[in-house]
């Protein structure tokens, strides 16, 4: 069975391809999980944390790409607002994904 070509097209998924696949895996894991096994639930939580963290990184990447590559002078947001939102999202990611996971 061959997978459709549009699944691997970067223009359709963009930067959110990794987080979309991780959230799909998390949904499948939740669907077929063993509710009596607590270690399995911890694994699913780690997969969801990875998906959320990769979504944050993809958001920052797409925001920077749309501002500096697509709209050369006409930025979506002022530069200070973008830096603030990127720093806020990256700090949230570092706290919840890196600090809480360890």
UniProtKB/TrEMBL annotation:
Protein name (record): Uncharacterized protein
Domain of life: Bacteria
Keywords: Membrane, Transmembrane, Transmembrane helix
Transmembrane spans: 13-32, 44-65, 77-98
